[in-house]
From TrEMBL, chain B:
Domain KaiC: 6-249, 250-482
Key words of the record: Hydrolase, Kinase, Phosphoprotein, Repeat, Transferase
Annotated Pfam families: ATPase
Species: Candidatus Defluviicoccus seviourii
Name under which the protein is recorded: non-specific serine/threonine protein kinase
Length: 100, 503
C-alpha cells in the first residue's frame, strides 16, 4: 500500500474542527496504519498557505498522495463517504480499482 | 451630534456625481447586473481608481475569473494590475474555481479560510477598498444555500469591522426583476447599484441606477453609461446641472447681420440655438456663417459634422466665400467629421466632450443632431442632447445645432419635438411655394430672454452666402406647410381689423 499524505486545513480550534480531526485520525489509524502522514494546518496562523492552495471553506482535507489529488470539504461526519472520498472504500467503486 | 456618513469617491467618472460624492465609506454596496452589464469592469475600476486617483489600496476577491485572466483583460482599460501588485497596492484573493478538481462535501463547513485569506490580503496591502466578484458564483460551488448565505453575511460584517469600503457584485437574471439571485441583497442591504444592458429598438443601452445608498443621498433614476478603452466606465449625468448654469447677456454674432437683427441684436453667448429645416433650406450655410462670424470676432469654433465629409464641407464653404482650410490653419476652426454609426451615442458624447476639452472652442456647431437620431432610441437621443447641451452651457460656449425635418414644406421632426424645450433659440428654415416657384423662408420661432422679429422673411443664397430679404407679406400658412396667397384687398381688411379697434 502506497503512502498517504494528507493535509487538513482548519480555521481555529472550533467544535467542527475537533470533530473533523478526530474522525480523520480514527479512520487513518484503522485503514492506513502507519502508512500515512497527516498535517493539520491552521489557516489563521498561516493564511498564505491557504492562499497558495486556494482553500475557501474549512475544514478542507486535501489528499496529496497517492494520486489523484482529492479535496473534501466539511466536518467529515459521514465515515462511508469519507472513505469513498479518500479512495479507501472497500466497495466496488471504480476509483478503488484504479488506485490499488 | 451624530456625524454624517463619510463618502469615498470611487474615481469612476460621473458616478460620484450621481452618488452625491461617492460610496458610503466603510460600507458595503451590492452592484447587481445581468451578464455583460459591466459588473467586473465597475469593480475593477473601483479598485484601480482607488489606487491611482484616491491613493487607497485594494483587494480583489475573485470567485469567477482567474486573476491571470483579469490581469490580461483589464490591460485594455489602462489598468496595469501586475505593477500595482508588485508595488504592494493591490492583492488578489483567488477563489476562482479549479475546473480539474472536484470537491466532495461531507458534513458541515464554514468560510473561515476565505475570511482568513481576505483579512490577510487586506492587512498585507493596507487596503481601504475591497471587491468580491461575484458572490453568486459561491452559490454554484457550494450547494447549501442557507449556509453560504450565512457565511457571506459573516464575511460582509467582517469587512465592515475592518472598515473596508466594499463592492460586492451579483448576477441578475432579469433587467427589471429581482435585485439579485439567491437573495444575496439581504445581507448587504445598505446600498444597491444596478447596472443594466437593455435591448431597446434593436439597440443596446447601458444604464446605471443607484437604488439606495443607506444613510446618504444620491440621484434617482437610470443614467446612461459607456465603457471605453483606457478609461473604463463613464457615467453620463444628464440635465442635473442644467439649471445651475449662469446665463450671460453677452451677445455674439450669428455671422449674418440680418439674422442678428432678427434675433434682437445677436445670439446669446451661452445659449443653444436650434436651426430646423428641410434638406437644402440652408442649414449648413447658416453653420458656415456661424463659423466665419466666430472667426471674424476672434473666436474659435468646433464644427462637428455627421452628414458630410470634410472635403464636401470645405467645398461648400468655398462656394459661399468662406475658406475652412485657412481658418483651420489659423487655429480658429476645427472640423471633426464622423459617421454617426461609427460609435454609440454615449461614446459620441464622450468624444464631443474630449474634443471640446482639447480644442477649447468658444462655439460649437453640430451639423446635424438629427443624423445622430437614427443610431439611438428616442429616450437615448434626448439624453444625448441633454448631456451635450448642459456640458456646452456649463463651459459658456455658444452651441448651434441643426435638425433636418422629414418633409420638404415643414412639419416637425423627432429632433424638434424632443429637444426644442432644451434649446434657447429656435430658427426655422422653410420652403415656400409661390407661383410655382420654390423660395426659402426664415423665421425666429423663439428666443429666450430677448425680443425678436416675428415675421417670416425671404432667404436667398448666392456665392457670398445667405441674404435675408423682406417678409412674406401676402402669404399665410407657411409654417403649416401649406402657403396660401392672400389678396391685397383682403390684407388691408385684416390690417383694419386690428388697427380700428385701438383707434
Amino acid at each position: 500500500m502506497s503512502k498517504y499524505t494528507l493535509k487538513l486545513y482548519i480555521a481555529g480550534r472550533t467544535a467542527r474542527t475537533k470533530q473533523a480531526i478526530s474522525t480523520l485520525r480514527q479512520i487513518c489509524e484503522e485503514e492506513l496504519g502507519r502508512t500515512y502522514e497527516l498535517a493539520v494546518i491552521d489557516i489563521l496562523e498561516r493564511p498564505q498557505l491557504a492562499e497558495n492552495e486556494k482553500i475557501l471553506a474549512t475544514p478542507t482535507l486535501v489528499k496529496e498522495l497517492p494520486p489523484p489529488l482529492r479535496r473534501v470539504v466539511g466536518d467529515l461526519s459521514n465515515r462511508e463517504r469519507l472513505l469513498v472520498g479518500l479512495d479507501l472504500a472497500v466497495s466496488d467503486s471504480p476509483r478503488h480499482e484504479s488506485g490499488d | 451630534m451624530v456625524e454624517g456618513l463619510k463618502k469615498t469617491p470611487t474615481g469612476i467618472r460621473g458616478f460620484d456625481f450621481i452618488a452625491d460624492g461617492g460610496l458610503p465609506q466603510g460600507r458595503t454596496v451590492l452592484v447587481a447586473g445581468s451578464a455583460g452589464s459591466g459588473k467586473t469592469v465597475f469593480a475593477t475600476q473601483f479598485l484601480a481608481a482607488g489606487v491611482q486617483v484616491e491613493g487607497e489600496n485594494g483587494v480583489f476577491v475573485t470567485f469567477e475569473e482567474h486573476p491571470k485572466d483579469l490581469r490580461r483583460n483589464m490591460v485594455s482599460f489602462g489598468w496595469d494590475i501586475p505593477t500595482l501588485e508588485a508595488e504592494g497596492k493591490w492583492a488578489f484573493v483567488d477563489a476562482s474555481p479549479e475546473p480539474a478538481q472536484e470537491v466532495e462535501i461531507i458534513g458541515d463547513y464554514d468560510f473561515g479560510a476565505l475570511l482568513a485569506r481576505i483579512e490577510h490580503a487586506a492587512h498585507s496591502v493596507g487596503a481601504k477598498r475591497i471587491v468580491l466578484d461575484s458572490i453568486g458564483c459561491v452559490f454554484s460551488h457550494f450547494p447549501n444555500l442557507s449556509r453560504v448565505r450565512y457565511e457571506l453575511f459573516r464575511i460582509a460584517s467582517a469587512l465592515r469591522e475592518m472598515n473596508l469600503t466594499a463592492v460586492l457584485t451579483a448576477e441578475r437574471t432579469d433587467e427589471y426583476g429581482d435585485i439579485a439571485r439567491y437573495g444575496v441583497e439581504e445581507f448587504v442591504a445598505d446600498s444597491v447599484v444596478i447596472l443594466r444592458n437593455v435591448l431597446e429598438d434593436e439597440k443596446r443601452r447601458r444604464t446605471i441606477e443607484i437604488l439606495k445608498l443607506r444613510g446618504t443621498t444620491h440621484r434617482k433614476g437610470e443614467y446612461p453609461f459607456t465603457v471605453i478603452p483606457y478609461e473604463g466606465i463613464i457615467v453620463i449625468p444628464l440635465s442635473a446641472i442644467e439649471l445651475k448654469q449662469r446665463s450671460a447677456n453677452v451677445r455674439v454674432t450669428s455671422g449674418n447681420p440680418d439674422l442678428d437683427r432678427m434675433c434682437g441684436g445677436g445670439l446669446f453667448r451661452d445659449s443653444i440655438i436650434l436651426i430646423s429645416g428641410a434638406t437644402g433650406t440652408g442649414k449648413t450655410l447658416m453653420v458656415t456663417h456661424f463659423v466665419s462670424g466666430a472667426a471674424a470676432s476672434g473666436e474659435r469654433c468646433l464644427l462637428l459634422a455627421y452628414e458630410e465629409s470634410r472635403e464636401q464641407l470645405g467645398r461648400n464653404a468655398i462656394g459661399w466665400g468662406v475658406d475652412f482650410d485657412s481658418l483651420e490653419k489659423q487655429g480658429k476652426l476645427k472640423v471633426v467629421c464622423e459617421y454617426p454609426e461609427s460609435a454609440s451615442l454615449e461614446d459620441h458624447v464622450i468624444h464631443i466632450k474630449e474634443q471640446i476639452d482639447s480644442f477649447k472652442p468658444t462655439r460649437v456647431a453640430i451639423d446635424s443632431v438629427s443624423a445622430l437620431e437614427r443610431i439611438s432610441t428616442i429616450r437615448g437621443f434626448r439624453e444625448f442632447v441633454l448631456a451635450v447641451t448642459s456640458f456646452i452651457k456649463h463651459k459658456e460656449i455658444t452651441g448651434l445645432f441643426t435638425a433636418t425635418t422629414p418633409t420638404l414644406t415643414g412639419g416637425s421632426s423627432v429632433t424638434e419635438t424632443h429637444i426644442s424645450s432644451i434649446t434657447d433659440t429656435i430658427i426655422l428654415l422653410r420652403y415656400v411655394e409661390l407661383y410655382g416657384e420654390m423660395r426659402r423662408g426664415v423665421t425666429v420661432l423663439k428666443m429666450r430672454g430677448s425680443p425678436h422679429e416675428k415675421e417670416i422673411r425671404e432667404l436667398s443664397i448666392d456665392h457670398t452666402g445667405m441674404h435675408i430679404g423682406a417678409p412674406f407679406r401676402n402669404v399665410a400658412g407657411i409654417l403649416a406647410g401649406n402657403p396660401v396667397q392672400i389678396a391685397v384687398a383682403e390684407m388691408e381688411r385684416l390690417d383694419q381689423l386690428f388697427t380700428s379697434v385701438g383707434s
